[in-house]
User: What shape does this take?
Amino acid sequence: MVGVVLASFCFLTDTFDVAVDAGATVGNATQLRVSYDLTGDGSFERVETYRYFATDPVAGWERYRETAGLAAATGTPGDLANGTVRVEIWNAIGSGPSTVSLGSLSTVQLPYQ
Assistant: This one.
């Protein structure tokens, strides 16, 4: 979770490019959600869940991007004032292990200036 003191919403959408590898596992899919607590009161006023990304059973990084599209969005976007942003990534389908790069291979850009 990342704390933000003040940021202005710029009417764009989240962008992300996450490196995912399920190795030789068949039937896995990774999913990502971004939640915004705009005022830092512990309540998330905006939640965006993206469609899952079905991985292939070949070792090597694959790219999960926001172009997968939104599966669901609740609440209204707004400015952050002492707010918090939470990004969650999980295995939505399948029971095998997947690896997500949290280093320089993955990025998440928020719609704020």
About this structure: The mean pLDDT is 92. The chain is about 0% helix and 50% strand. The longest strand covers residues 84-93. The radius of gyration is 15 Å.
